Amino acid sequence: MATMVDVAQRAGVSTATVSHVLNDTRPVRPATRQAVLEAMDALGYTPNTLARSLVTSRTRSIGLAVSAISNPYFTEILQGVEAGALEHGYGLLIADPHDDPEHERKVVQLLHERRVDGMIVAPSADPDELLRYLGKHDVPTVFLDRLVDTAADTRAGTAPETPSEDSSGAPQDTSFRSLHFDQVCAENAEPMAQLVTHLAELGHKRIGLVAGLPGLSTTTERISGYRHGLANAGLPYDERLVAHGDSQSAAAERTTHALLSLAAPPSALVTGNNAMTIGALRALRERGLSVPDDLALCCFDDFAWADLFTPRLTAISQPSKEIGARAVQLLLERLASPSRPGRTVRLPSTLVHRTSCGCPEDPEKPEAFASPGHPQSTEKGPVS
Fold first, then answer.
1. What percent of the chain has pLDDT over 90?
2. Dihedral (C-alpha) 327, 329, 335, 341: value to the nearest 10 degrees?
3. Of 118, 187, 175, which is closest to residue 147 (Cα–Cα)?
């Protein structure tokens, strides 16, 4: 097995120069760097990652904590994270927090104990313990898909002058809500409003929503978009038409049955993610209802087989792979500049128009079009 000394001799440089090339610890002239890389390739030299991490205090690994890895949406995010990580020479350690706050904190701690350089996390609906751990240990972190309010009480990790109080009146530590976290997600409110407006234009006046797990930013924003869509169409908001499917198929199936059992059931339904779409379709099948003849259906989250259903599903497509790749980019920028303010990046979603909404097949109509007003990603610094 070739050693660093062998590489140095073949490239005609010192072992220190080889080390600088491997670890980026000092600038090396391009021609010298190329000679070292060619010598490594010719000799089949494999760097000792453990020794390298001792020199640089970096393991070149990223911890990824996302729930429901079996969900196609998160699977595509994982693909984007993996591609972005490999492009920059990083490996991945992956854990599933199961959307449980206590388990979330445990798996993030396990990843941290394995000395990952930073974290990419899709936070739960109650991320306080997660934020407290990450803030206490100053772990470079990017949140994806679901946003977290990190600007509540502090600036750059400093404790607030007056600690907030819990329900018992005791001071509550909020210093973990610092602004050094970065975040990336898709647009949620405007695309949801588009779906509702489109259904209203087709004549629907009672449009139901199977919403996600309460407490998630995605759920809150999509409900907001639903309400805006109703308002834009001049339709009243009826809280009886909004039910939570908790972002899961089984819960969405029960919720859809409940909506359809109302005295005045919806004539159209919007589901908040792909898992809940499956649950809603099961409920409709059990009731012998046909889409879109008996009930129009639109969904948030497009997935590979949505085009194979009969009818074909009208859906909002999120740039999942791009979200994953952008999260890696933000994390690497954070590692290079730990003290810069946190940033939130939103990427545009796309409405994929098919036939489950009740529209006929139209070969001249484009399959997809971008959300109006969001042709490009938007990026914001910390909001106080």
1. 65
2. -70
3. 187
How far is the C-alpha of 6 from the C-alpha of 238, rounded, in Å?
Answer: 74
Q: Model confidence over 243-273: pLDDT tens digits?
A: 999 999 999 999 999 999 999 999 999 999 9
Across the chain, where does the E strand assignment appear? 61-65, 91-95, 118-121, 141-144, 164-165, 171-172, 182-186, 207-211, 242-244, 268-271, 296-300, 314-317, 344-347, 350-352, 368-370, 378-380
Question: What's the angle, vertex CA 176, arms to CA 91 and CA 58, rounded to 5?
Answer: 25
Distances (CA, A) of 111 to 95, 97, 121, 134, 333: 8, 11, 11, 11, 20
Residues near 92 by beta carbon (within 8 Å), at least 6 away in sequence: 61, 62, 63, 64, 81, 82, 85
In one letter, which amino acid is 285?
A: R
How far is it, in rounded angstroms, from Cα 236 to Cα 362? 31
* CA distances to 207, 279, 314 from 285, in Å: 19, 10, 18
Closest to 257 in 3D by CA, of 223, 300, 288, 232: 288
pLDDT category at 290 given cuts 50, 70, 90 is very high
Is the separation of the CB atoms in 97 and 63 below 8 Å? no
Rounded Cα distance, 63 and 110, in Å:
9
pLDDT tens across 25-55, in order? Answer: 788 999 999 999 999 888 887 766 545 554 5
In the numeric block, which tokens belong to residue 119?
Answer: 């974290």
pLDDT in tens, 203-230: 999 999 999 999 999 999 999 999 999 9
Closest by CA to 81, choosing from 66, 59, 99, 98, is 66
Distance (Å, whole) CA 344 – CA 347: 10
